[in-house]
Design brief:
Blueprint lengths: L7 H12 L6 E6 L2 E6 L3 H16 L5 E4 L3 E4 L4 E3 L3 E5 L9 E3 L6 E4 L5 H14 L4 E6 L4 E9 L2 E9 L3 E4 L5 E4 L8
Parallel strand pairs: 4-7, 8-9
Antiparallel strand pairs: 1-2, 3-6, 4-5, 6-8, 9-10, 10-11, 12-13
């Protein structure tokens, strides 16, 4: 894990965001100096997520469970992110609460929102490696592309695979499978 000094202001912002109760169907994230509130996803978003989730479920490592919209927290770097899909150890249930230490996640999967694409395309590409999330799979139905970021160290991802809908994405360990993307559909 990268050890970063978190300014007191960021710690206060994170604590404040964690105290908020968003309206039903909304989620909250923290990145840098921003609290980000987002509305629930569209049916195309949900369908594409299902296509991906079914394949990840078939290759889920022992002792891990899928979780949608789970708060992944990294207080040491001032980040609270909520991926569309992640796989976390079953043992996190023992921790209780609504947050999971981000470094325990095996992957973060995001389907790009048409209303706030920069959050997934820029903010999370910046934040997820800082949070020690080993894999970041990004599905962009606006452009019909898929990007897999991997090998985080020093606060950045060092490997990037990209392709278009229809290509096969090589998903590394601990999943170790080829993700089919031919059933993903673009936004109209």
């Amino acid at each position: 894990m990268v050890d970063f000094e978190i300014p007191e202001r960021h710690a206060q912002l994170l604590a404040y965001a964690q105290s908020l109760t968003p309206p039903s169907g909304w989620k909250i994230e923290v990145s840098g100096d921003e609290i980000i509130m987002m509305a629930g996803p569209s049916v195309i978003h949900q369908r594409n997520l299902l296509v991906v989730r079914e394949q990840f479920d078939a290759h889920r490592p022992a002792g891990f469970m899928p979780s949608e919209n789970t708060d992944l927290a990294s207080p040491q770097v001032g980040k609270l992110r909520n991926p569309d899909l992640t796989y976390i150890p079953v043992s996190v249930v023992e921790l209780g609460g609504n947050e999971v230490p981000a470094e325990l996640a095996a992957v973060a999967v995001e389907v790009v929102s048409p209303s706030n694409p920069e959050n997934d395309l820029v903010g999370k590409v910046r934040d997820y490696p800082l949070m020690d999330i080993p894999l970041y799979l990004l599905i962009d139905p606006r452009e019909g592309v898929v990007v897999l970021h991997s090998e985080p160290s020093g606060g950045v991802y060092h490997r990037r695979w990209s392709g278009k809908f229809g290509d096969t994405v090589p998903i590394p360990e601990p999943f170790s499978f080829d993700l089919a993307t031919s059933d993903l559909i673009p936004y109209p």
